[in-house]
């Protein structure tokens, strides 16, 4: 079976600065893969390159073995990608429901009733808050909106950029339980996360980035037990 997503020898620059150097990774259908690394290692750039926000200088991005490197963001979203961006990036002056509707903007003319039912089942609080302005929600509630908004596009691949950032420990645990539920529905996930222990505890596989290069990869359980990784990222 071919991967749902492949990055093939991708090198990316911001101006004269190289951010990614020849990275290759893949995510299979229904798989949860985490991308680990320190600050400025290239994790967020990898997600932006995958979605098409950033274009690689060389290498390819493939969906279902189709080369989408030259495709614009909306076309990739229509092919089955969605992103939960770092810091949520909600429209604070719009209601919760209006933010969710924006997640389905490429599906104009289709009924969204089943999608609202699905995200409200995952996030019951959002049904209670549906008429509230998104900017007045707590940090945990805003993260729920960001995840629910992404799911409104019915993605096959969900990109998640630091989903635990800024949340209390209790909310981090709750957030990861919801990510597990989303994964259990068959949605593939590529997740960037600073909390390496938590990410690896729910992932199938992981990659470790350092200064724009993949220095380690493997099954999540093996990475959790890896001595160098534990010393660098897991505090052990």
Rg estimate, integer Å: 17 Å
CATH level 4 superfamily of the largest domain: P-loop containing nucleotide triphosphate hydrolases
Overall 3D shape: globular
| Total count of strands | 10
Number of helices: 10
Model regions low in confidence, pLDDT < 50 over at least 5 residues = none
> How does the helix and strand content classify structurally?
alpha/beta
State the share of residues found in helices, binned by percent: 25-40%
Could you say what the CATH architecture of the largest domain is? 3-Layer(aba) Sandwich
Describe the protein.
The protein is an alpha/beta fold and 236 residues long. It has two domains: 1-80 and 156-236, 3-Layer(aba) Sandwich (Rossmann fold), CATH 3.40.50.300; 91-154, no CATH class. The chain has helices at residues 43-51, 73-78, 96-103, 113-122, 124-128, 139-151, 169-184, 196-202, 220-225, 227-234, and strands spanning 5-14, 17-27, 32-37, 58-63, 66-67, 81-84, 157-161, 188-192, 205-210, 213-219. The strands form two sheets. A six-stranded mixed beta sheet has the order 6-7-8-3-9-10, sandwiched between helices. α7 (169-184) links the parallel β7 and β8 (188-192). The longest helix has 16 residues, at 169-184. The protein is globular and about 45 Å long. The chain starts with a strand and ends with a helix. The mean pLDDT is 90.
